[in-house]
């Protein structure tokens, strides 16, 4: 009994300790999504470029496939950015579980789309794959460039 009272007293003492100092949140949380307008503009330009290249090389089906590939990546990456920014603003402890859930959801959906696309005879399926690859490479490169530009001291 005495041991349990001693443990309860120690826990009460621990509960009274102040929380550790955490770095303050930025006054304006919009910095988390400040890159989205620029990335959306680059993605729109890439979508038009991919559709043009697809049309020239394979006709309307390839144009649609290439544009759809870029659009899939744009929507997927934008969704991830918004979910992560929201979780970080509301409760940072939710960041990892929600980010992982979002990635599992979007890559699961992408896997379904690609597995269906491989089994079809649609003539735009190769262009869809190229559009996805181009979207991932361009989005990743532009986002890396953006954050390098923003984080570099003047």
Automatic annotation (TrEMBL):
Residues 1-24 are annotated as: Disordered. The chain crosses the membrane at residues 36-57, 63-87, 94-116, 128-147. Residues 1-10 have a biased composition (Low complexity). Keywords: Membrane, Transmembrane, Transmembrane helix. The keyword Membrane applies. This is ATP synthase protein I. It comes from Paractinoplanes bogorensis.
